[in-house]
Write a structure and sequence with these properties.
It holds the Pfam family UPF0020. One of its GO terms (molecular function) is tRNA (guanine) methyltransferase activity. InterPro entries: RlmKL-like_Mtase, SAM-dependent_MTases_sf. This protein is of the alpha/beta class. It folds into two domains: about 5-195, VC0802-like, CATH 3.30.2130; about 195-419, Vaccinia Virus protein VP39 (Rossmann fold), CATH 3.40.50.150. Helix content is about 40%, strand content about 30%. The chain is built from 13 helices and 17 strands. It has helices at about 5-20, 35-45, 70-75, 95-105, 120-145, 160-165, 195-205, 220-230, 245-255, 265-280, 300, 325-350, 375-380, and strands at about 25-30, 50-55, 60-65, 80-90, 110-115, 150, 175-180, 185-195, 235-240, 255-260, 290, 305-310, 350-365, 370, 385, 400, 410-419. Strands 9, 10, 11, 12, 13, 14, 15, 16 and 17 form a nine-stranded mixed sheet that branches. Strand 16 and strand 17 (about 410-419) form a beta hairpin. Helix 4 (about 95-105) packs across helix 5. The longest helix has 25 residues, at about 325-350. It is elongated and about 75 Å long. The model has no long low-confidence stretch (mean pLDDT about 95).
Amino acid sequence: MDKEACLQYIIFLRYNEDMKKEQYYFFILGNNVNLSLAELAACFEKWGSKYQLIRQDQEVAIIQIDDFTNEQFATLGGCKKYGLVNQQTEQIEIQDVTNFILAQAKPERFNFGFSYYGFKLTESKKIGQQFFREGLSIKKELKTRNIKSRLVQSKQEQLSSVIVDKEKMIDQGCDLNIMKLAEKYYLGKTLAVQDYHAFSKRDYGRPKRDARSGMLPPKLARMMLNFAQSKEDDVLLDPFCGSGTVIMEALVLGWQKIYGTDKSKIAIDSTHQNLMWLQQKVSFSEMPHLEILPVMELNKSFDPQSIDQIVTEPYLGPPLRSSVRRNDIDNTIDELTELYALAYRRFAEILKPGGRVVMIWPIFVFKEQLITLEMGRIISELGFVRVDHLAKFKLQDNRLIYQRPEQLVQRRIEIWQRQ
């Protein structure tokens, strides 16, 4: 490195140290942005962290926070990867990027690459070609230092969590994220990626999985648990436990006092088999208590104010076909409103003051209309207040909706707290 490059890099390092004092982190968000942001806010509040959203788009959030660790990131369900912002600038200096990557190089083997966020397609192509050429130059420089290296590429604009993990770019390399938000550029190295393999294994590898009844994705269950802001010694109840997804994710997070109920014996048996399978992979001291119990009889098995948090996906109605009639949806809405109102009455009895209900409600898609339950007044009269983790972010739409393309039933996550 020549004298001028050394001087530039010293300036870059000093700037980097200033950024560390402010602790700007970037988070690569999941496909449902509001859910990812709400989960971050809920966790920051639970951990007592001071935070501020600096910039955000459909892929990235730049957040100022006092501190954040890989262990904390591992508890999240809604972010793909994260890292510390090493530089923010109004113009990218290629030499700064080169110097930063060279400083990261490991003596034995070094895999590096670039991920681009927030660029228009034409911009992305141009900058991709520019950094590809620079990447080849970096490889040549590393070769003169007797360092074996590989420029990792992807067909997409970003290196996915899978690629970053498989290429060992966290410990033995560098995934440099170049993010453009509101005409500013943010550069940062990935510090951790989501454990996609473990989530996939708990989703598709468990012995009991009933896709016909609508499987709750483990990542969504994880986010819902984080919305509850529970502590490990809290008492958790899933009163519609199905095949046990919420309970499994709670165990992975380290929760110990867990109850699962369902009116279906098949569901309870499925949950038990899945928990036996999970126990071979995750260490937990006590098997959750499972019971065949309809939601209207919760007060027979649980004392008043004995539960800290309720996290659940209830019955969402019969599977819909594309030929569904509006009358069928209206009938389902009436049926579910009655069921959910009864459920919340029982929840109000057994929840401790300050306890939360994190529950999924369906949104039915009918001829480009979104039809859902209107139960706010009923639940408020039972002594609950709605929780909005996105209020601080001042977004135009604060709804928490989990959806996939062509899905006829979307999931709306509702968070209510007992007063």
